[in-house]
Every structure is written in C-alpha cells, then in structure tokens.
TrEMBL record:
Active-site residues (renumbered): 517
Catalytic activity: ATP + H2O + phospholipidSide 1 = ADP + phosphate + phospholipidSide 2
Stretch list, region Disordered: 1-47, 84-109
Cofactor(s) annotated in UniProt: Mg(2+)
UniProt record, GO biological process: endocytosis; phospholipid translocation; retrograde vesicle-mediated transport, Golgi to endoplasmic reticulum
SUPFAM superfamilies: Calcium ATPase, transduction domain A, Calcium ATPase, transmembrane domain M, HAD-like, Metal cation-transporting ATPase, ATP-binding domain N
Name assigned to this protein: Phospholipid-transporting ATPase
Low complexity bias spans: 33-42
Subcellular location field: Endomembrane system; Membrane
Domain P-type ATPase N-terminal: 173-229
Binding site for Mg(2+): 517, 519, 886, 890
Translocase is among the record's keywords: yes
C-alpha cells in the first residue's frame, strides 16, 4: 500500500488490525499489501496525517506530535463519528454536536445580513461528535516514547469546540494553555545560570575570569587577588543588576496585566445569574466575559452579544495588535444577539467550533451551531483578538484561544539583533590589543632569556600586562549609550522622539542610504478630495457647486435614463465603503473613504446611518433613502478592492426614476489595475488615471453591475455554502465573489491628494547635501510616485527620471538596465513587476547600477521587496542603510536596515514600535542624523580611545618597571591603586567626554557636508589606534623612566616612593589629557574633575602603605611629579596641535568661516 494518503509502515498495520476487529493485518503474513477493507486507504487518511477516517468514523490520537515514527499503539485510540468520510473536514478535532439533534433546516433561505447566515445540516450531521465512541484498548506503550511525549513535545494546536450549555470544551480545558502573560527571561532558579552564561559568552569576561582563577595558583600570583577579581566583579555586578532590573520590570508589567479583573458570566446551567470577578491569568477557553468600554480584551474571543446597538456592532482599537489607529467594526453573531438578555447565553443548547490557532490576524473560520439545527458561519468580523481595546459599548464574548495560542502571542517574534559599526571596530581593535599583549610579554621574555621556567614567566608577564585589555570598555560604552538616549529623547527640537534600541546610537552618524516610504512618511496621510471623472465630464474641487446642481437634477429626474450614470456613480461613492457616522465625524479604516464621504456630503449626499444590514442616506433632494445591505466584500491588500451588494431604496418615492421591483446593485471600488480586468472596455479610463497620477493624486475606480433576482439567488446560495466551509473557506468565498465581479460598468474615477508633510522639501535637500542616497519605496502607481518625487524635491529640477515599468521578461529587463547604466545624473523609477524580475535574475547587477543613481523610486512595491532592497544594499553594496516608514508594511525594511526609524501616524504605531528610533515626522530625521548621529559617533570614538589609552599606559609602565628591575614579574602598583585608577580616579573625567561637542548644532545643520567625513570612520580606525598606542608608549615610558631618574641616589629612592611618584604623575596625566581634549565645556566636566581630585586626595590620606606621608606632603614630591607630568604630556600635546594646524579637520575650517561671517 503506497502513494499519497496511505498509512506508513507499522502504523498502517496497527490501524488495519484495529479496523478488522483485532485480526491479522497485512504484515501478519496473509494478504500482505492488501488494502484496508471497505474503502480506499488513500481517501481514508485525513490531511496532515492526524487521524484515519473509516466508515464515517475517525481514529483519533494517531501521531499528532509529528515524529512520524511512533506506532499507533503508543496512543490511547478511540473511534468517533465524523462527517469527514462523507466529504470534508480538517481531520484535527471532532465536529461539534447539535444540542437538540434535529434534522436539516430549509435550504431556500435568502442570503441577507438581516438574518443569520445558515447552512442546512442532514440528519446524520446532527450527532456529529456524539456517536457511540468505541474505545480501542491501547497496546503496550514504550516508556521512552511516553516520557518524550509528556515532557519534551508540545502537541500542535487543534481546533476546539465550546459547548455553551455545559461550558465544556473539546479538547478539554486542561489540555489548553492558560492565559497568563509571561515575558520574563528568568526565574529564581535560572537567573544566575542563564545570566552568567550570557555574560561569559563575551570573550572579555571569560579572559578576565581565567586571569582571576590563575591568581589562586601561587606560582602564577603576581599581585593582590582584588586587582583581578575587583574589576571583573564590578562589571558582572553592573551587568547582572541591569539584567535583573529589566526582568523585574517585565515581571511587574506581566503581573499588572495578569491581575486585571474581568467580569465572567456563570458557565454552568445551575448558575444562570452568577457573575463574578476573575483575573486575566485565570481566564480559560469557554469562559463568557462581559467587557466594557475602554477595557482590554484579555484573550481571543468570539463576539456573541453587544450593547447598546441593537444590531450588535461595536468598535475596537487595534493599534497594539496591527499598528493601525483607525477603529475596527465588529459584529456580534446574529443569532445570539437576538436573545433577550446576556444570561440567556448561559445554558444555551448551542456550541461554537473554532479553527486551530494560527498567526493570521485578518482571517478566522468558525461556526455557531444553533439549537434549531442550523449553522451560522463566523468570520473575522465576529472576533475580538487579545490586546485590542473595546472602544464603544459593551460586549459579551466567548473565549476560544488563550495564552500562547492567541493571535498576538503567536505573532510575537524577536527582532533581529543589530550590532553597530563602532562595536565591530572596537572588537577588531581589541584583537590588536591581544596581539600587542602577547608581543610585549614575549619581548620581555626574550630580554630575560629563556630558561627552564620560561613558560611560567610568560604567563606571569601576560597577567601583569592584562590591563591592556580594557574590561571597563564595554560598561563605559553601554553607559554612554544611555546618555545619548536621554539627550535624544529630551531634545526640544525633535519632540516625541523615542530611542527603542539603545545599542546602535553611534550608527546614526555612519549611514549612506535612506529608504523611505511615501504615504504617511513624506506625506501626511490626510486625504483631500480633488477630482471626479464620470467618463464624459470632469469635476474638480473648484467646481463642486456645478456638481451639486447636476446631482440634484439626477436624483429629481423622473426619466430612468436621464442622469442615470451620474446618479448611480454618486450612489456608489456613498454606499461602497465601511464608514460609520459618529456624532461629529466619520469612523473608517482608511482616510480615503473619509475624504470621499466628505465629498459626497458636500454635494448633498449625506450618510445618516450605517449598520450591518442597511445604509440610510439623505439625498440631494432632501429625501431619505434606505438601502438594504445584502452582502459585503471587505477590502484586503491582496484583493485591492472592496464591494457591496445592496437592494433599495426602501422608500419608493425617494428616487422617482426607479421602478419596482427594487433593483439589486453590486458596487465595486478599487485600484484601476484591478477594476480594468473586471469591467467592460472604456476609451477614457487609462488616460484619465494617468492624468490624475501625474498630478500626484491617488485614484479609485468605481464599477457597477445590475443583478437580476435569479442571479442574486444563485450567487447567494453559492456564497452561503462557501462561507460554511471549514477548509479553504477564504478561497471558496473569493472564487464565488470573482464569478460575480465581471462585466462591470465603470461609473466614475475619483482622485484624492495626500498632502506633503511639513519640512519635507528642506529635509530631502539637506540629506542630498550630506551625500545621502535617498530611495522612495511606495505602493502607489508610477505616475503618482514620479509626481511626488518632483514636488518633494527628491529629484532635483536639474535631474531627469529614467522609468522601467511593466517589464516581465529577463531579456527586456537586462536591456533596460544596460541602457540606464549609460545614463548619468538620472533618477531610476522602477515598478514592482520589473523589480521582481531584476531581483530574481540579476539582483547584484541591479543593485550595483541602481546604487550609483542619485535617487531611486520603486513603485507598486510590496513589503517583502522593501525588506529585500534593504538587505541587498547591506550585502551587495556594503553600505549602511536607514529605513523610515509609518505603517505595518514598512516593518520588514525597518528590521533589515542597519537603523530603522518609525513614525507613529494614521497607519498606526506598528512601524514605530518595531523601529530602533521613533520620530514624530520626517523632518526630524535631519537633526537626528546630522546632530545626534555626529555627537554619538564622535563621543563614543573618543571615549573608546581614552579607555584603551588608560589600560595601555599602565601596561607600558609595568613593562618599564620590570625591565628596570631585572625583569622581575611583580606588579608595579598595588591592587587598590589599580582598581582606583580604573574607577574613581579617572572614570568620571573620561566619561564626561560624552558631553563634549566639536561643533554647535547650528553649524552641523547649516553645513550638512560635515556628515560625509563621519562615514569614513576617521575618528576611530587603525591609524588613530596606532597614534594612541604611540602616545601611551611614550607617556608610560617617560613616567617610569623619569620617576627612577629623578629619585635616583636620593634619600627617598625606594620602590614604594617610585611607585607613588609614578602613579600620581599617571593620574595627573590622565586628567590633563582629558582637559586638553575638551572643546565645549559643561559644568558636569568640572564637577567630575573636582570629584576625582577629591577621591585621590582621600586615597593618599587613607592608603598609608602605598603613600609615604612624610614624602608625599613635601614640596620635593610635587615639583618632581609636575616635571614628570610635563615631560609625559607636553610633547604629545604639541604634536597634536601641530598636526591640527597642518591638517585641520573639516569642522575646524567651517567653524573659522562661521566666526568670520559673524
């Protein structure tokens, strides 16, 4: 037995034996290879391999863990009745039973939203899932398999059935996850093991741990143990404290959510009036929750009742789920909405079947099985996902998914870890420091000459020079990032700025490319109606008065053919939408719809009321017309259209030209590329769409089809059957919808304008001066994108645009790309179809050619293409890229770019929440890059250089000390002095450099060209590293040599006094070097220097073993120390000044020019 759908191996034989009443199967010798009796096994094995269907029954419990090799007898097996053998089920859970077991309902019900959408059931369906289940004795189970299944395997999510009468669920509640929110990384047992593991994954910490452990060995001990354990313990303590604090904050946020109280209706029949408070964490599948306005939905629910709207509609705020700020309309199941009270739900002999949990937040398949033997299909509009907020009214909802099975939790994904260029450069320099460390130890060993214990001395030298590796580098850089975060978020010039990723602030100063969305990023996403074209006449915003007169005549005419096209076009605008009128505004999912409704209102066609079943309009004549909604086709990004089937108007005299019976219209609106395939050919649509697009307008085409009663009945029956399907429901509904959407008459073409954001033109001009390559990636048409590119100055007036669109062959795409390659100073415009061909066949060549263009405009660009472009810029062009957008379709490129910037706007906060940085508008990007990016990079680079210098100069002094005193492997300074030098004596002055500014913000923004030098990375590279290494070698050698020479043959010539003079000179040198590097003084710099002096003075008083009080407080000590400091510092400072005079930095030239202008 082979082929698709047949049972594999041992599982097949086991099942055959069960179905044959325990007799021998094919593998027992007789009839080997014979098919399972009474049925084709290929038809009996359900999709997914989760159970076997046989004689109308399902053998459940067969290998649901996906291992594929476990025999059937490892599971308790039962036989349950199923309709799958008759033609279709998902094979993952039993069907819900009908509570009363009645037969089929009438199949002649019309499809109308005024009554429940029902599906007839046969008598055999009435007891689906309740037929006598015959338990099959489980055979001997493997202990190893049982252990693996229980402890290590998580069963795949399954569909579930909730019985309202008893509150029971199938599968049982105990097999479904709880609803507690858990976002913590650690618990009391795992904190130290996991946190320490994460810390010691860093080579720095592992290196110093090895050094600290080595000091336990007497032969390797070169100083006090505190010298090596202290810095490591300090760094680990700070890191662990940060991790613990962050996890504690996560736990508190989780507890805050888990402790929220909700009102639960009694689920048992003997508690019909029971209402009790329940914590969010204690909510389980099958609970009936009573939700109130502004209350967060705690779990994924099906909406059963809503108030106060008798039609059962409520609004949800979904910005925390999908990032969209517009409210979403949700409708209660019609059958349960008709009940008198909420308590009538308790004990109701009905059940809800819900599909297996999945990630898609815009799709849902379910059924409500009613006591009268009918089924009401449930869809997305009947759901309330966890994390949304009830924006209006109150609701009674049935919980169907909890915890990790909710849509919000299934969509939680960790964003990719981003590492800044500066961190990579510091890591590379650290490798050079390791090389230098071994070189110094080896050189010293060579001078000492190799002996029998040469390896021991090599190790001891390595331990003495280990200060070269700056263990405090990571903590200094991490603390500086928090300072940059504070400065950006408190910059009054960029209000509402938020830093969500504090790991890459320096990356803002090293970028090459900017990828930007159009709608909501460059534009305001505030739509204003501009034009409407009826095929023969065009009306603009300045001719609305004329259109108002035409509309009045069209609705008042008694002739059926007079003004019919204009009248039905305006009705299409007023009816084909999903807008709900509020008290003083319209609530819609798209600003386009609001703009068009406002246009209709301005010509006298006013939306008064809209519910699930009807739309009421005030016509230009003043009459009120009520239209029945028969079917709605919601807008989806894939369909790029929405439609509605209406009957009406109910008032016969509202439109005199209409005759009885009431006509049935289907109105469809959508993109011109979609409607053109559905509508009859016209000689004006393409031309007018192009004209409006060239003006930068967003276009929508309206189509109409007049249906006969028979056509509608045929469609209604097919659509009802498609809606009730449990597998491939969406595909079946789309197929039925497509059959109806044909032979449309194009009624009108509308154009709305999306206004540019404030400061966009100036911002793009400054970015161009800073030599950024700006790419605009949009989903709009080519003509619209070209117009916006020109009006926003993305493409300057001196540049032309080269357009490649509609290319679907590799050969033609290659020719077009070769032709563009020969052009100079031209922007590239490419559409989504062409971009697919380019990236699929020669993506690297395309990126190399496009990367040289001053600007690139990608039109009809999908989210996947946006993310792919960001990735290719990094991998092919090896350039750093910033991506900025405001919608969920921009998240992919935001996460794949080096730096992602989000803008919270009308499309929601999804992009803002996923981004590394968030700003209120596009114009703020300039200050974020040119000012904060510059400061972050320059400051961190200088901070890293000083930390490297501080560790290196100690090692040089130690090397000279050992060389002067017979290559002894002993420490020059005591452990407390070493710890103090890296912390309280020098840390504050060095860290205060994060407040320094090399130029003012005015200069940085006035001269964007200054940004170009940052890309070259000259502030921290191998050249600057070697410069600081030379400084450290000279200064360290000077300090140690002069300390010995000055005290030689003196009364105070002891190693202790040499160490005191050298250490004091070293501390003073670090302070002096910090002071000489400051360009813009801040009061905290003075405070840090003063505190460091105070700490060192206290150390001299307290550490009497290290400082001879009789020598330290003498004039001789201080003048000798001062001489050593000047010898070590002055040549270095003079050399630095001469270098700046000979080769002044670019910002210095600009500063002098600015000073002369003032």
């Amino acid at each position: 037995m082979s082929g698709a759908g047949r049972l594999p191996g041992s599982r097949r034989s086991a099942v055959e034996r069960i179905l044959n009443g325990g007799g021998r199967g094919p593998e027992d010798g007789e009839g080997a290879g014979a098919p399972v009796p009474e049925g084709n096994p290929a038809d009996l094995w359900s999709p997914g391999g989760s159970r076997l269907l046989y004689r109308g029954y399902a053998v459940t419990g067969v290998d649901n863990d996906g291992l594929g090799s476990l025999p059937l007898h490892d599971y308790p097996t039962t036989l349950v009745a199923s309709e799958a053998a008759k033609g279709g089920t998902d094979g993952a859970a039993s069907e819900p039973r009908l509570p009363n077991g009645k037969g089929a309902a009438s199949a002649d019900e019309p499809l109308a939203t005024t009554s429940a959408d029902t599906l007839p059931l046969t008598a055999s369906d009435a007891y689906v899932g309740t037929a006598a289940s015959t338990s099959v004795p489980a055979l001997k189970t493997s202990p190893l398999h049982s252990l693996r299944r229980r402890w290590f395997l998580r069963a795949p999510p399954k569909p579930r059935t909730v019985y309202l009468e008893s509150g029971d669920t199938d599968p049982p509640r105990k097999r479904l996850p709880d609803n507690a929110v858990r976002n913590t990384k650690y618990n009391a047992l795992t904190f130290f093991p996991r946190a320490l593991y994460e810390e010691f994954r860093m080579f720095y910490n592992l290196f110093f741990l090895a050094i600290a452990i080595s000091q336990v060995i007497p032969a390797l001990r070169v100083g006090y143990l505190i010298t090596y354990i202290g810095p490591l313990a300090f760094v680990l303590t700070v890191s662990l404290a940060k991790s613990a604090f962050d996890d504690l904050m996560r736990r508190r946020r989780d507890d805050e959510v888990n402790r929220q109280l909700y009102e639960r209706l009694g689920a048992a029949a003997h508690e019909p009036d029971d209402r009790r408070q329940v914590r969010a964490a204690d909510i389980r599948v099958g609970d009936l929750l009573l939700l109130h306005k502004d209350q967060r939905v705690p779990a994924d629910c099906v909406l059963l009742r809503a108030a106060p709207d008798p039609n059962g509609t409520v609004f949800l705020r979904t910005d925390q789920l999908d990032g969209e700020t517009d409210w979403k309309l949700r409708r209660a199941a019609h059958s349960t909405q008709q009940l008198r009270t909420d308590e009538d739900l308790i004990g109701l002999r009905a059940s809800v079947w819900a599909e297996a949990p999945r990630k898609e937040i815009y799709e849902f398949i379910g059924n409500l099985y009613l006591p009268n033997g009918v089924v009401e299909p449930l869809s997305l509009e009947n759901t309330m996902w966890a994390g949304t907020v009830l924006a209006s009214g109150s609701a009674v909802a049935l919980v169907v998914y909890t915890g990790r099975e909710t849509r919000s939790m299934m969509n939680v994904s960790q964003p990719p870890t981003k590492v800044g260029t500066l961190d990579l450069e510091v890591n590379f320099l650290s490798k050079l420091l390791f090389l230098l460390l071994f070189s110094m130890a080896f050189i010293l060993l060579c001078f000492k000459r190799f002996g029998t214990q040469w390896f021991l001395y090599l190790v001891r030298y390595l331990l003495l020079f280990s200060s070269i590796i700056p263990i405090s580098m990571r903590i200094n850089l991490d603390l500086s990032k928090y300072v940059y975060k504070f400065m950006a978020e408190h910059d009054r010039h960029i209000p509402q700025a938020t830093v969500r990723n504090s790991d890459i602030p320096e990356e803002l100063g090293r970028l090459d490319y900017v990828l930007t969305d159009k709608t909501g990023t460059l534009t305001k996403n505030e739509m204003v109606f501009k034009k409407v074209h009826f095929g023969s006449v065009l009306f603009g915003r300045d001719s609305l008065e004329d259109l108002r007169k035409v509309a009045l005549a069209a609705f008042a005419a008694t002739d059926e053919r007079s003004h019919r096209d204009v009248r039905e076009a305006l009705l299409a605008v007023a009816l084909a939408h999903n807008v709900t009128p509020m008290e003083d505004a319209y609530q819609a999912a798209s600003p386009d719809e609001v703009a068009l409704l406002q246009f209709a209102n301005s010509i006298g066609l006013q939306l008064l009321e809209r519910s699930q079943s009807m739309v009421r309009l005030r016509l230009p004549t003043g009459a009120v017309a009520t239209f029945d909604i028969l079917v709605e086709f919601p807008f989806t990004p894939a369909a790029k259209r929405m439609g509605i089937v209406v009957r009406g108007p109910l008032e016969a005299a509202a439109i005199p030209a209409l005759r009885k019976p009431r006509p049935i219209w289907m109105f469809v609106k959508g993109a011109d590329s979609v409607l053109a395939r559905m509508a009859r050919a016209t000689d004006w649509l393409d031309e007018e769409c192009g004209n409006m697009a060239r003006e930068g307008l967003r276009t929508l085409v309206y189509g109409r089809r007049l249906l006969t009663e028979a056509q509608y009945r045929e469609f209604a029956e097919a659509y009802r059957e498609a809606r009730a399907q449990r597998q491939a429901r969406a595909e079946a509904m789309a197929a039925v919808q497509t059959r109806l959407e044909r032979d449309l008459d194009v009624m009108c073409l509308t154009g709305v304008e999306d206004m540019l954001q404030d400061g966009v033109k100036e911002t793009l001009e400054q970015l161009r001066q800073a030599e950024f390559r700006v790419w605009m990636l949009t989903g709009d048409k080519v003509e619209t994108a070209r117009c916006i590119a020109t009006s926003s100055r993305l493409v300057s007036r001196q540049q032309r645009m080269f357009t490649i669109s509609g290319v679907d062959s590799r050969t033609l795409a290659s020719r077009q790309l070769a032709q563009f390659k020969r052009r100079t100073n031209e922007a590239l415009v490419v559409d989504g179809v062409t971009l697919d061909v380019m990236l699929q066949h020669f993506g690297e060549d395309f990126m190399l050619v496009a990367g040289r263009a001053p600007a690139v405009i990608a039109c009809r660009c999908s989210p996947t293409q946006k993310g792919e472009l960001a990735r290719l810029i990094r991998q092919v062009l090896h350039r750093r890229v910033l991506a900025i957008g405001d919608g969920g379709n921009d998240v992919a490129m935001i996460q794949k770019a080096n730096v992602g910037v989000g803008i919270p706007g009308r499309e929601g906060r999804q992009a803002s929440m996923a981004a590394d940085f968030s700003v209120a508008q596009f114009a703020h990007l300039v200050r974020l890059l040119l000012w904060h990016g510059r400061n972050n990079y320059k400051r961190s680079a200088r901070l890293a250089q000083f930390v490297i210098h501080r560790g290196l100069i100690i090692a040089v002094i130690q090397m000279c000390f050992s060389a002067f005193f017979y290559f002894a492997a002993i420490s020059v300074f005591s452990g407390l002095l070493m710890v103090g030098f890296a912390t309280v004596f020098t840390m504050l002055p060095i860290f205060s450099l994060v407040l320094d500014e090399d130029v003012s913000d005015t200069v940085a923004l006035t001269y964007p060209e200054l940004y170009t030098e940052l890309r070259r990375g000259r502030s921290l590279n191998v050249r600057t590293f070697l410069t600081w290494v030379l400084k450290a070698f000279y200064s360290g050698a000077a300090i140690m040599a002069f300390a010995v020479l000055i005290l030689y043959n003196a009364a105070f010539f002891t190693t202790a006094n040499i160490q005191a003079v050298a250490f004091t000179a070293l501390v003073f040198l670090e302070w002096l070097m910090v002071l000489s590097e400051i360009r813009t003084w801040h009061y905290l710099m003075i405070v840090s220097e003063a505190l460091s002096v105070l700490f060192y003075a206290l150390a001299i008083l307290l550490l009497r073993d290290d400082f001879d009080q009789g020598f330290v407080w003498t004039f001789r000590f201080w003048w000798k120390t001062l001489v050593i400091v000047l010898v070590a510092w002055l040549p270095v400072e003079v050399g630095k000044r001469v270098e700046r005079c000979v080769h002044p930095p670019r910002y210095a030239k600009v500063g002098r020019a600015t000073a002369r202008e003032e």
